[in-house]
Amino acid sequence: MDQEQILARITAMVDDERKLRDALASGEIDSATEQQRLGQLERDLDQCWDLLRQRRAKSEFGEDPDEARVRPASQVENYRN
Known about the structure:
By secondary structure, the chain is an all-alpha fold. It has helices at residues 3-25, 31-60, 73-76. Helix 1 packs antiparallel against helix 2 (31-60).
């Protein structure tokens, strides 16, 4: 995935997150369903942001950004800001 594709995926997931919150507010889904789906969305978003950061770092330091790889959610989730 190139940078534009990653950003488009991030945008789509943020939209999905909003739709889930709206669905909960309107009673279409229950909070357990919302939490389960949000949890997966948050993990996927973290992986996309990590991939984007990897690509940008590789570009900045003269490396090939296409060598960046999606890391496991368990690894990405344990990062601290």
